[in-house]
Amino acid sequence: MYQYIVFDLDMTILNTWEANLCAVKEALEKLEGKIVEKKDLEHIFGCTTNQTMENFGVKDKRAFIQEWYDGVVRYQHTISFFEGMKELLYELKESGYGLGIVTSRTNAEAQVDVERFQMDGIFNQIIGADDVLMPKPHPDPLNKFIEENKTQKEKVIYVGDAISDLKCALRAGVDFAAAGWGIQSNHDFSESTYYFNHPSELRKCLLGL
Fold it and tell me: How many CB atoms lie within 10 A of CB 176?
């Protein structure tokens, strides 16, 4: 049924929860003098980098981005694949599926983790927030993937953990699989085509294993 499986990156493939929360918290304190509790930063997942900076009124965006990046590097020991996800990516690739990433990060930011976690060559295409005029929750990123891979929306499924991911899929007319293993909110995912609690459930759906 599907030919392409497109994934969000943060909290879908990689568990970057602690690294990003700590990095943003420290960047806000250092550059903006703002003390923000980690629980009040959870909404950054699903937001673009620019949206996060706008939400907190960041003045020097270039310095903030660098501080955020440096912070994630400091906390990279907390980042890991979700259980079974790395193996699933290779199995899907070997089974003939085309794979992609659509992320709210910039393309360059996403490429760093793709290389760091040795996912080079797995994905047909990576689309970041800076690759389109209107990033998630708008449909532009998925529409771009569909167009540039010369496929149809019915042959694509998007896997993600955020409401912005779901809205992007719905607006693009693409089936959506909620990555329950990475969802950290109480948002309503009832419009999802599927809801999976573990990557093994996604594996069974796509590979019958």
Answer: 23
Percent of the chain with pLDDT over 70: 99
Residue 84: CB atoms within 10 Å: 16
Give 148's contacts (C-beta < 8 A, 6+ positions apart).
125
- Contacts of residue 68, Cβ cutoff 8 Å, sequence gap at least 6: 23, 24, 27, 49
Question: Is 127 within 8 Å of 144 (Cβ atoms)?
Answer: yes
Q: Does the global pTM surpass 0.70?
A: yes
Compute the distance between CA of residue 57 and CA of residue 160 in angstroms, rounded to an integer: 27
Helix axes 85-94, 199-207, angle to 10 degrees: 10
State residue 84 phi and psi, 5-degree precision.
Answer: 85, -5
Structure confidence by residue, pLDDT tens digits, 154-202? 999 999 999 999 999 999 999 999 999 998 777 899 999 999 999 999 9
* Cα–Cα dist 186/102, whole Å: 22
